[in-house]
Amino acid sequence: MKINIAKSAGFCFGVRRAIQIAMKAARSGREVYMLGDIVHNEVVVGKLKDSGVKKIKSLGPGRGRTLLIRAHGAQAGTISGARSAGYNIIDATCPMVKEIHAIAKKLEDEGRMVIIIGDKEHDEVRGIVGQLNKKPIIISSLADVKLKRLHRIKGVGIVVQSTQEESKVMEIVARIKKYIGDVAFKNTICDPTKLKQSQAKTLPAENDVVVVVGSRSSANTKRLYQISRRLNRRTYWVNSPGEIRPSWFKEAGSVGITAGASTPESSIKKVAEGIKNLCA
Fold first, then answer.
1. 13-27 vs 95-109: helix axis angle to the nearest 10?
2. Which run of H or of E encompasses 127?
3. What ranges do the domains of the chain cover?
4. Fold entry, domain 13-94
5. What is the spatial distance between Cα 100 and Cα 118, in angstroms, rounded to a whole number?
6. Which of 32, 99, 198, 221 has its CA at a distance of 20 to 30 angstroms from the CA of residue 12?
7. Residue 257 has pLDDT above 80, yes or no
């Protein structure tokens, strides 16, 4: 059976950069802490833990300690609070996420109500919210577009969580424009996400089976799975070779593999090898 791995599978630039920054900080001999996980992947988190980077739930005294800001970014108040507590700050926020922060603040400065299209509980969305002076509107789906609330708004500025699915975002924007005349829409979905999602649309047509590799906590991996699953019902989501089932590949001539932005290359290779061994 032929195995085709998407060229975009695995780490994006922002994740790779954040991990490199974290590992460099760990080797410095400092006490390095993070508020949560650097990215949504258990393998990566485990490696950082082994390197000595500690995960904390809240800020304590920071003298002599370093706080690593994760790839998803953080609220402005969190960073200023950490500095006040004495932490040295190392910022591993994805540059593309930082650009979204700047765009959202500019839209607010123009006097617009900011709308964020994204997952309400996602760390990246919380980070964007934390840059603004006024509480923004967060829209996760078409069902969140509330007519009564939108009719009261004169002008809005829209930004998007960097890993959202573009087709769904455009549906939401079109709905908003029906109710509000003055809309400044900034498509802040990052290029790596667009490429991954584009390839997640071609893999299902070119292969009998598609396997998506990544953590269940990864929102961008979930979207790759959903896109592929809509096009090919023989799409499966795994985080390790142990989750693969031989029955998935019955009478299959080819399998396409893709992976989320936080999935390490080692995990992709192990899954590919697992499929080869099952189908040998």
1. 110
2. helix 123-129
3. 2-10+191-279, 13-94, 96-185
4. Rossmann fold (3.40.50)
5. 12
6. 32
7. yes
Write the CB contacts of 78 (distance below 8 Å, at least 6 apart in sequence).
35, 59, 130
Two tokens at 56? 């904390």
Long-range contacts from 189-195, C-beta under 8 angstroms, 24+ separation: 189/160, 189/161, 189/162, 189/163, 189/164, 190/12, 190/14, 190/94, 190/96, 190/162, 190/163, 192/8, 192/12, 192/13, 192/14, 192/261, 193/12, 193/162, 193/163, 193/164, 193/220, 193/261, 194/166, 195/8
Helix axes 191-206, 219-231, angle to 10 degrees: 30
The whole-angstrom separation of Cα 171 and Cα 153 is 19
Q: Write out the two tokens for 119.
A: 């997952």
Domain 96-185 carries which CATH code?
3.40.1010.20
What pLDDT, on a 0 to 100 scale, did the predictor assign at position 280?
A: 67
Task: List C-alpha distances in Å: 145 to 112, 161, 175.
Answer: 17, 16, 7
CA distance 89 to 98: 15
Quick one: average pLDDT of 179-183? 91
pLDDT in tens, 11-58: 999 999 999 999 999 998 888 999 988 888 999 999 999 999 999 989
Burial class (CB in 10 A: 0-12, 13-18, 19+), 232: middle
**Both structure tokens of 162:** 């960097």
Structure tokens given for 21? 């920054």
In the structure encoding, which two tokens stand for residue 200, read together? 């997640």
Mean pLDDT (the chain, rounded)? 94
Answer whether 2-10+191-279 and 13-94 agree in fold.
Answer: no
Question: At residue 148, does pLDDT exceed 80?
Answer: no
Specify the CATH number of the domain 2-10+191-279.
Answer: 3.40.1010.20
Which 3 state secondary structure label does DSSP give 203? helix
